[in-house]
Amino acid sequence: MRVRGVDADGNSFTQETHTVNISRRGARLAWLSGFRGIGDTVELQHGREKAPFRIVWVGEVGTPVDNQVGLVAVEPKKYIWGVPLPPPVRVDDGLPPPAPVARRSRQPEQRRRPRYDCMGGVQVCQEGAESVQAGTLAEISLGGCYIETEWPLPANTRVRVELRLGGVEIQARGKVAYMHPSFGMGVVFTEMTPEDRQRLEQVTSRFRPLAAN
Fold first, then answer.
1. Rounded mean pLDDT of 81-101?
2. pTM of the model as a whole
């Protein structure tokens, strides 16, 4: 595939590279050089299709994603890859929906936190480990998020996450509620500072909640 952008000196560049994986909202490239930094917008071309993408993370040296670059689509409805993907995943506080029951309970239904469709970067580190993996933030609520990644962690794994969303960085501790092999994982937040909680509330207030399923 081909990438076009503007470097730190204001000069146009064109590079050829290949994807490590793709999703509806973005892609991970094997490498990319010459761009100005995180937040930069470049144009990706696959075959005859092309669209703008924003860089949301760059893999750190010595990690499994060394030299890789994560991008999200600036125009999410414009799909350039030409291959089918699994059905969209929905997350509610990082937890899967409850199993259907034969009859409605008489107890009042617990109110769920609104879910928001979003595009952002995220770094995940398993508690007690030093290695960090990067992924794409696909959905978020005040209680959890869904992370698209090729290497999802097993359910009940304790993690630390650093979210980059809407120009804001938010840190939290959490637990993997469920995972989809080679696709992604739902994480429920278990610990967050008041400052990070406030940043999360502020950034999600800019988004439109998804319709309840």
1. 55
2. 0.58
**Which helix H or strand E contains 60, and what residues bound it?**
none
- C-alpha distances in Å from residue 69, one per residue of 2, 18, 66, 87: 14, 11, 9, 24
Q: Which of 65-79, 96-110, 145-159 has the lowest mean pLDDT?
A: 96-110
Per-residue pLDDT, 170? 94
- What is the domain extent for residue 36? 2-73
Please check whether residues 98 and 198 belong to one and the same domain.
yes
Q: If you ran DSSP here, which 8-state letter would residue 150 be given?
A: S
Shared domain for 38 and 96, answered yes or no, is no
Same domain, 63 and 96: no
Is 104 contained in some domain? Answer: yes
Cα distances from 187 to residues 106, 124, 129, 137, 161, in angstroms, run 30, 10, 17, 11, 9
How far, in Å, CA of 181 to CA of 75, rounded?
27
How many domains, in total, are found in the chain? 2
Q: Where are the beta strands (DSSP E) in the chain?
A: 2-6, 12-16, 19-22, 26-29, 41-46, 49-58, 69-73, 116-126, 132-140, 144-148, 158-165, 168-180, 184-191
Quick check: 157 pLDDT over 90? yes
Q: What mean pLDDT do residues 72-97 have?
A: 67
Report CA dihedral (17, 21, 23, 25) to the nearest 10 degrees.
-50
In a domain, 19, yes or no: yes
Domain boundary among 73, 104, 131: 73
Note whether residue 197 is domain-resident.
yes
Contact (CB, 8 A) for 168 and 121: no
